[in-house]
């Protein structure tokens, strides 16, 4: 989709511009030194844009200093302030950053009041040439929209169009839009609706793509590639974030792979895969690869078949061939068991078949008050025997519960070595000591499964 061009600091996105890759710091914003270091690290490995959390007014001055320090040290990477609830904070920080990411529906429970707050932000952003990202997440849409359309992909697109129309009414076009979900099907459907509605209204703004709370490891890489590549291959998306519960710099090679593979939204489907042949018959694909590494093979397979699985063009996939291991030695894909494993992961990532629990985990940010990465690993290790459950591990009590829309169970760090446990977004237990929390979660899931039998 040919969109308007939006300027974020020294970067332009949209139109025929290359797809920009971005990530987000997971440091405390008040720890200026560590945040500056992390911004430099992600810029050095190729991030075009970096986002930093601003949970309250107290982070406004630190982010100003962080940006200033980076500029003094020769780093021009645009800085985005991540705001969730407080319009007052957005108004304060907007003059000092290149973009403000908001979920305007969160500014106030009353939709009309939220609109008044949003209008104030538009005025400040116009004055300071600051872009806005309208960032809506599945699970945190306002009541006014879910009462009308449910908590659906269509509701996400409708909500975004309402806020976009407000920008147009205020003659403000320095806007990027995102509609994220951890569910690849919902995510793809939402962005497709958004593209159609933007075209219908003749207001095509740049789109930021991402599968939110994708987790870590192979599963997160596969889920992200399925969702993002499906849309990029259709010419939807101008900037992307691969959201991992890992160090932010780990996100960049995957995002760069996707950005390079699909080049610009106007020239999608550049040949990039290590697939050497494919036969598709009666819903089954047999694909052969000759890949330079396991990492590349995983990304290739997810991008080659993600869209076909999501759109139900195929129901089965058989992956063969070889890849080079870390010593440069060729390994057989079928002989090493990697083929079957990748098929399971692809089917689960595209929501076609579940062979293990579905895990949702946010990447963590400056709001996270516990060791999210270790806790997520521990939850995965100890719950992998369950089937047909979605388990979320979230970094903070403020946004975590609202953002785990798809989860059956939520494990949310409160800080102070305490955890809250949720069932379907309803708080069941709070202040559980961290060293008892996984046992408690397992016990609750087991009891629930027994009651269902
Ligand atoms: Fe940060 Fe995770 Fe909380 Fe979102 S849910 S604000 S990523 S800690």
Write up what this structure looks like.
The protein has 453 residues and is α/β, with parallel strands linked by helices. The chain folds into 3 domains: 5-261, Dihydropteroate synthase-like (TIM Barrel, Alpha-Beta Barrel); 275-349, no CATH class; 358-452, Sulfite Reductase Hemoprotein, domain 1. Helices cover 41% and strands 22% of the residues. It has 14 helices and 19 strands. It has an 8-stranded parallel sheet. It has a 5-stranded mixed sheet with strand order 15-16-17-18-19, with helices on one face. Helix 3 (87-93) packs parallel to helix 4. The longest helix is centred in the C-terminal third of the chain and has 19 residues, at 434-452. The termini are far apart. The model has no long low-confidence stretch (mean pLDDT 94). It binds iron/sulfur cluster. The site of iron/sulfur cluster has 12 residues, from helix 13. Iron/sulfur cluster is lined by residues 362-365, 367-368, 394-396, 399-400, 403.
